[in-house]
Structures are given as C-alpha cells and as structure tokens.
Amino acid sequence: MSPFRRERPPVCLGPLTSLPEDVPTRVATSPPVAILRHGDTVHVFEDRCPHAGAILSRGTLTNEHLTCPAHKATFELATGRSTGQLPCRPLHTYTSWLQDGLLYRSPTPRPTRKAQKSPCPNPTPTLDSP
Question: What mean pLDDT is reported for the chain?
Fold first, then answer.
C-alpha cells in the first residue's frame, strides 16, 4: 500500500428518522446500498443480488431474512450469509452507526467469511446430456 493513500471517510446515509421500519430502502451511494431498519437495529448491505444482479431493496422481508425478487435467493440480514435453496456468495455488509441523528456506514464492507457453499449458479438452466 502506498504511504500516500488516504483513509476514505465514512459515508453519511441521512437521518435515521427518514427510514421506514421493516422496509428495505435503497440509498444511492457508490456502490448503492440497501438499508433495513428493524427495531433498534440497522442493517446496511449491498443492493445487488450476487446471483443475478437484481435490486435487493425490492425484495421481501421475512423475520431476519431478505429474499431476492428475481430468483428467490435468501440472505441473512445480520451476516449477509446466503441461506435457502439457492447457494450464493454472501452479501457485502457494512458497519453502521448513529451520530447526531445521522446514520453513517463504513467506507468499505466488512470482511466476508469464507463461503461454505459453492459460487452462485448460472441463472440460465442447463440441459444434461445422456
């Protein structure tokens, strides 16, 4: 790493009061992220499904899991881990915090744990030959 490289500052996501509860909300940062306010907990994660690139903030929430609107891949909100029938890489998740009523996220995602499942399958079906 270059000694001249600067540390990237945190990213302000706006006032916490502007976020609806239990509804994934897209925020146009670089890269775009989805925020989910669930009680006193706020989850910040990438807003693209690693399987097919669908916008996850359009997905459905069930308890602590978010389901992709395109191919029904399911992700655990707290960790980003892929769950369910469709194995995929984990979502990039971000550390977030409140300061003076504003929500901030870290400039880089949390380190991901080594995936225990295989990489995302190809979204197009394949035919088996006899």
Answer: 83
